[in-house]
Amino acid sequence: MVAITRFPPNSRLNVGVVGATGLVGSMMCELLAEREFPVARLRLFASHRSTGKQVPWQGSTIAIEDAATADFSGLDIVFFSAGGTTSKALAPKVATAGAIVIDNSSAWRGDPQVPLVVAEVNRHALVHIPNGIVANPNCTTMAAMPVLKPLHDAAGLKRLVASTYQAVSGAGLEGIEILSRQLAAVGDRAATFARNGKPDFLPAPQKWAVPMAHNVVSLNYVLGADDYTEEELKLRDETRKILELPALPVSGTCVRVPVFTGHSLSINAEFERAISPSHALAVLRKAPGIEIRDVPNPLEATGRDAVFVGRVRPDPTVRHGLALFVSGDNLRKGAALNAVQIAELLPARPPARRRRALEMA
User: What pTM value is reported for the model?
Assistant: First the structure.
């Protein structure tokens, strides 16, 4: 496995963030400062509606640039968190200009020429970046991977069944606003739960198929192949790619819950070889990016870098199986942190790409 290599003390990089005004883009900026990433210059990009807005960073302010018309030359690393359509349109342009693109959307995850990376799991995939683009996994997949990879190494993952409990912030600021409005609309009427089992007023569904407040949504976005939703297919396909198990049987049920931040998964994993709960816990305690908890939960995981795992027990329905529960901050480790960690694994590469781009111009 490729070891983590921090940048040399004298290395300074020109960094960009596309989608800098969103939840994840803003957190990327915070983490660049928090982790003392070697930034020579930071440029921030968003839609034309935000052009000129001043964003504070490191004791000064940075003006937002229009991503659609900006000149990206001179940048070494550019983080994208502006949706798949923007990434498809702009990421190749930015990579051609010489930067390494680290993309948080679903646009490139299935591309065989684009590595899909979780920093603790498959950093070796960064050895080959033919198109100059690296993909960040879906935030739900991200929570599972640091847990499943060491268990796979120990016993050989054979089959995966997972049900998710996904926070509304996975849908961005819009998801948070919808839940806040619906909770406020129900208000004191929630007291009728004790008498009727539900409030006497339910808000109209917004974004999701049914109301989010005081509810769970078992149809998380649109249906795809075999009546699995896009979220469920992402969990399947991204797990296969990251763990390099292209035929791994995966069945997921992705559920949106009225939690603001923090995704959780109930996992049933079948293995090729016997692995006891005590052995699994011993393996997980040594794995990077994981903390063991008796009761993993999204409240505790919010704002934390680690993925929390617990409730590890036998799955008696298969010969070699475990049941366990995982929680992680979907905005932090699930998106922004992993992107910055990927950038930390790219010392000396971006300047070399920029020189080649200038030579080809």
Answer: 0.91
